[in-house]
Amino acid sequence: MTNDVNKKPVLVTGGCGFVGRHLVNKLIKKGNSVWIVDNLFTGWHPDKWLRGYDRKEDGNLIKYTKNGIEITFIEADALDFFLDEIKSRPKIKLPAFSDVYHLASIVGGRALIDGDPIQVATDLAIDSLFFVWATRNKEKIERVMYTSSSAAYPIHLQSESNTVALAENLIRFDHGMGLPDMTYGWSKLSGEYLARFAAKHYGMHVACVRPFSGYGEDQDTSYPVPAIASRIAKRENPMTVWGTGEQGRDFVHIDDCIEAMFIVLDKISDGSGINIGTGKLLSFNEIIRTFAKIEKYEPSIKQLLDKPVGVQARHAHPEKIFSLGWKPEISLEDGLTRVLNYAKENKTFEV
């Protein structure tokens, strides 16, 4: 179980990104040693966020130790790393792992997803190589968590005229598959398909999560919540919003997302995907108004209609994740207050 001290380390690909950092820190608090593979394309070097650790370079590795916990960092592109492993030319001898969390991907805000879809399609190769590696090394891996996305859901269910709460069974691999959101959605849909094969054909314990709009204090400002917070911190007036601002999303604080991941990995093993969402649909205009209420001023809102906005409305049907024993603990106002305070302080990330 991930929430117990485990002699085997945990592997986190993409462990230096926004989700990865929070996951690694939670794993450390649970007593797990962790291996990280990250090329730092969007991630932060561990020197920046693993404070107070003894640091030692060991060939291609950097090891951080504190209180008997060891964090091993491999700076490598996931494509090269897994290809070297598959081709039997590994640069590093890997241990057996209790859990493997596969987060590595090319991901960013709407500007990247819409603006450079072929680059984002690299995720198809990353996930394919990951699952080849995982199935060939299944005797050394106890459990796998694949991080999918709400972008895998059919976009025709997320329009202004046809908006539904997105339940897990709306993604079907037997028939009637809808069009996901750009190449990012395709990659996550394909990754889930491979996860099911890994479970059913190779006997691996695999779980998938479909996070909705995760946000948090140290998230990159290419994402809407921290971008809005930084402008609110400056008390901009008018406040700009991409599109009309009436596009809706299901916002979940990163700490709640990580707790949901632990629960899903404990309880799901057949490669199926589980939503991480609150079930509440909130517009970006509502996010601006909530931030402004916290900051105690009333800016006007200026629409930027030439900016990419994605689907009109995306929110989870959360019944399955609720039935597994998870519910969000951080309210929207509390979560946005944390993000705003972080923006106002303008400090680098600290654990």
Description of the molecule:
It comes from Candidatus Harrisonbacteria bacterium CG10_big_fil_rev_8_21_14_0_10_40_38. It holds the Pfam family Epimerase. Belongs to the NAD(P)-dependent epimerase/dehydratase family. This is Epimerase. It contains 12 helices and 16 strands. It is α/β, with parallel strands linked by helices and about 350 residues long. It has a domain of about 150 residues: NAD(P)-binding Rossmann-like Domain (Rossmann fold), CATH 3.40.50. The strands form 4 sheets. Strands 3-4-5-2-1-6-7-8-13 form a 9-stranded mixed beta sheet, with helices on both faces. Strands 14-11-16 form a 3-stranded mixed beta sheet. A two-stranded parallel ribbon has the order 9-12. Strand 7, helix 7 and strand 8 form a beta-alpha-beta unit.
Low-confidence stretches: 1-5, 347-351
* Tally of separate helices: 12
CATH superfamily of the domain at 105-215 and 251-277 and 317-325: NAD(P)-binding Rossmann-like Domain
What summary fits the major beta sheet?
9 strands, mixed
Integer-rounded radius of gyration: 20 Å
Q: Architecture of the domain at 105-215 and 251-277 and 317-325, according to CATH?
A: 3-Layer(aba) Sandwich
Give the overall shape. Answer: globular
How large is the share of residues in beta strands?
A: 15-25%
Percent helix, as a range, is: 25-40%
Q: Order of strands in the sheet with the most strands?
A: 3-4-5-2-1-6-7-8-13
Q: Report mean pLDDT, rounded to a whole number.
A: 93
